[in-house]
Amino acid sequence: MRKLKLEELGRPSLEQFKHAPKRPIVLVLDSIRSGLNVGSIFRTADAFALREIHLCGITAKPPHREILKTAIGATDSVPWSYHHSIIDCIRLLKTKDFEVIGVEQTDQSVQLNDFQLIGENPVALVFGNEVGGIDEAVLPLLDHCVEVPQWGTKHSINVAVCAGIVIWHLIFSGTTRHL
Q1: pLDDT in tens, the chain (179 residues)
Q2: Are residues 127 and 163 in contact, defined by beta-carbon separation less than 8 angstroms?
Q3: Under a CB-based contact definition with an 8 Å cutoff, are residues 97 and 129 in contact?
Q4: Cis bond leading into 63, ω under 30°?
Q5: Class of 20-148+158-172 per CATH?
Q6: Whole-prediction pTM value?
């Protein structure tokens, strides 16, 4: 066994990637304080060929030193936009027929492994602040709420790690639409 060299990975160029089909998934990040988390989420969005990222509230925006450190170029390959208000962002996505899914622990959330999407609408995954989660005012705008099953004492997972788990599950469980 040997590790593959970069030229053996068959990665597309930045221009090829920009024009390649994307998964009908967008991410909405609301008031994510850590630029390192934001950069990591950009990198995950690139890895899974997601459509775009919407940065809301106090979420750090590129170019930001911490984002650039962990994104390692994904801010150039993943389209993004900034919205002062997450509520306005979600309302805009709903006018474009997005199914909006919050990732949060609520009294009506469904365990991720039990969640099934129905229909063909594109998906917007909403991730909230590292400490406070998704703002209460946003909950009525969500079509669904999912949570990652956990058995430890902390009852929370780092937002960038959580995003990777949820995205991977939705894509590889057959829950979301394909490219």
Answers
A1: 999 998 999 999 999 999 999 999 999 999 999 999 999 999 999 999 999 999 999 999 999 999 999 999 999 999 999 999 999 999 999 999 999 999 999 999 999 999 988 778 999 999 999 999 999 999 999 999 999 999 999 888 999 999 999 999 999 886 555 44
A2: yes
A3: no
A4: yes
A5: alpha beta
A6: 0.95
Give the residue among 55, 24, 23 at the shortest CA–CA distance from 39. Answer: 55
Tokens matching residue 152? 């430890």
Give the C-alpha separation, 100 to 126, whole Å: 7
- SS3 of residue 82 by DSSP: strand
Sequence-separated (6 or more) residues with CB below 8 Å from residue 73:
14
How far is the C-alpha of 116 from the C-alpha of 119, rounded, in Å?
A: 10
**Which residues does 173 contact at the CB level (< 8 Å), separation at least 6?**
none
**What residues does 50 pair with on adjacent strands?**
23
CB proximity list for 95: less than 8 A, separation 6 or greater: none
Q: Is the peptide bond before 12 cis (omega within 30 degrees of 0)?
A: no
